[in-house]
Design brief:
Elements (H helix, E strand, L loop, with lengths): L1 H33 L15 H44 L23 H26 L5 H19 L8 H13 L10 H4 L22 H6 L1 H7 L4 H26 L3 H12 L2 H9 L4 H16 L5 H9 L9 H10 L4 H19 L7 H13 L7 H11 L4 H27 L4 H16 L7 H10 L3 H26 L5 H39 L1
Helix pairs in contact: 1-2, 1-3, 2-3, 2-4, 3-21, 4-9, 4-11, 8-9, 9-10, 9-12, 10-20, 12-13, 12-20, 13-15, 17-18, 17-22, 18-19, 19-20, 21-22
Length: about 550
């Protein structure tokens, strides 16, 4: 019952928001036409009274945007409160403390799977959260400036939703418990996670035998920068209670998300655009759920990548080392190195500044890798761990093609060649993106396209990979990018409960399930690329016609 009250409230508020966005501006335009300046007509306002009448009508015109702003503020407050209520309902179903000692709780552990009203209502709540998020952003774009009341509303709404996510069990993915295993191995036992595993050295460790841990026999597949910097929360939590460590990681991710939002604000040219960019990223329900609720380390990669782009915009030598930190958290951002070099050359950086940025990047690389170098064994361990982690099947084009070839009994050499072919396709398309930047395209959408290309062609592609993409979209957003963001947010959230339906209620084979997941994650990315390509072709066609004339 409570879920339907929430949904009905969301629909009513969004209906009124649509009225404010569509009907009221139209009536305001009509009012403007009818309140034009008085003209000299017989029987009209006398010359002596004309200034007074004109002043009154101007006051009426000023009242229109003021009233619209007040209504927008009221709607934003109401939807922000309702959004927090939605997260509270989810927390009631998936509470961390309600399942404190259960090691394997996830969406697929809900009794009766998608026949359960809990999972069905979770889908509806995810949809409502996304729609209210989009409606709030649309309303924010209509106000001439973000008032103190609106700023307070945004902050309280986002903080409230984030705090609730701290106390939600990581039901979307249990990766956070694997992080904790590796942190414990590094900081309690002082061992190198790139060359040894918990199963090899401490198989009877309390955490290893508790049931919470998985991947006990896997080497660490993430970068050393994350491992070094994630020591900070463990100083306060210790390792005695696994859920205390989890809460520490969630709060740490909250801090990183806040820093990323501040960097997005600084990236913009004025206060209003800064708040819009910060809200677009930080209030995104997928970012909150995957970044705080499930505590994925993509948050740190996104933070350093946005910081690097901000430094690049300001032509600071810090762009290089900040990009290196992003790569050393998760190697997905490595594909952006050529783009950074091209922008440096376009901005006419001096050789000295480029050399300083490159040298400082090497210093960062040395500092992060030195503790785990082990005579070069770090590289072999990282490669082995990455190969093992990439062996799973998922929703990316690379993974779907590999799974299809395996089902059709392709030779192992053919399947192995597929990865090389995907690298080749990525390289060609990335060069095309660089060509566009060389011709004047903004680097921010180019960076997002490159990142999404890497994700869909060379990785496994999960919803939390979109955290970084959404941060890049917030830097410089157009209508097409916003359309993709809303679609990807919606599909990325309902991916979780509908995947449970596919696995347990549909009767499909795994490949068909992964195809469905590909529709949720890969298809919107391909749709974005096709629209961008179509717009480029249309612009090119107009240019050719002008040349011909």
């Amino acid at each position: 019952m409570g879920t339907w009250v929430l949904l009905i409230g969301a629909v009513l508020l969004m209906g009124y928001a649509v009225y404010e966005l569509v009907a009221r501006p139209a009536s305001a335009r009509q009012h403007t036409r009818h309140t034009a300046a008085p003209t000299a007509r017989s029987g009209a306002v006398s010359v002596a009274r004309a200034p007074i009448a004109l002043s009154a009508r101007l006051d009426d015109l000023r009242a229109i945007p003021m009233a619209a702003t007040a209504n927008a503020t009221t709607l934003i407050v109401a939807m922000s409160v309702l959004g927090v209520v939605g997260w509270l309902v989810l927390c009631g179903w998936y509470s961390l403390f309600g399942h404190y000692t259960r090691p394997d709780f996830a969406f697929d552990k809900i009794p009766d799977h998608y026949n359960s009203s809990i999972l069905q209502n979770t889908t509806w709540i995810f949809l409502a959260l996304t729609l209210m998020y989009g409606a709030i952003f649309a309303l924010l774009r209509t106000v001439p400036q973000v008032s103190r009341a609106l700023k307070a509303t945004i902050i309280l709404g986002v903080v409230g939703a984030a705090v609730v996510n701290v106390f939600i069990y990581p039901v979307g993915a249990l990766d956070a418990y694997y992080y904790i295993i590796e942190l414990k191995l590094a900081y309690l036992y002082h061992l190198n996670p790139y060359i040894t595993t918990m199963a090899q050295t401490h198989p009877i460790d309390a955490l290893a035998t508790s049931g919470f841990a998985f991947g006990l026999d896997l080497l660490f597949p993430y970068g050393p920068a994350w491992l070094l910097l994630s020591w900070a929360p463990t100083v306060f939590t210790g390792f005695a209670d696994v859920q205390h460590v989890l809460i520490g990681l969630k709060l740490y991710n909250m801090l990183q998300l806040a820093i990323t939002a501040y960097l997005l604000y600084r990236y913009q040219d004025d206060d209003r655009r800064g708040w819009l960019a910060a809200y677009l990223f930080l209030a995104n329900p997928l970012v909150l759920f995957e970044g705080v609720g499930n505590a994925h380390n993509d948050v740190m990669m996104a933070m350093f990548l946005v910081a690097a782009l901000l430094a690049l915009k300001k032509q600071s030598w810090l762009a290089g080392p900040l990009l290196m930190l992003s790569v050393l958290v998760k190697f997905f951002s490595a594909g952006l190195v050529p783009l950074f070099l091209l922008v440096m050359l376009k901005q006419r950086w001096s050789v000295r500044k480029i050399a300083m940025s490159a040298l400082s990047s090497m210093v960062v690389l040395f500092i992060c890798c030195a503790p785990y170098w082990a005579g070069g064994r770090l590289i072999g361990g990282f490669e082995a761990a990455t190969t093992a982690s990439q062996g799973a099947s998922s929703a990316s084009i690379f993974s779907l093609l590999r799974e299809y070839m395996s089902l059709n009994n392709a030779f192992p050499t053919t399947i192995s060649a597929l990865h090389s072919a995907m690298y080749g396709v990525f390289a060609v398309l990335a060069i095309a993106i660089l060509f566009g930047v060389g011709r004047g395209r903004d680097p921010e959408p180019a960076a997002n396209d490159t990142f999404l290309l890497f994700s869909v062609l060379l990785s496994l592609l999960y919803p939390w990979y979109l955290i970084t993409a959404f941060a890049l979209l917030a830097l410089r957003r157009g209508r097409i990018a916003l359309g993709y963001l809303y679609a990807a947010t919606t599909f990325g959230l309902v991916y979780h409960p509908l995947s449970v339906w596919a696995w347990f209620n549909s009767g499909w084979i795994p490949f068909h399930i992964h195809l469905l997941q590909g529709l949720f994650l890969a298809a919107p990315i391909l749709g974005l690329f096709l629209v961008e390509l179509g717009l480029y072709a249309a612009a090119r066609s107009r240019w050719l016609r002008r040349i011909a004339m």
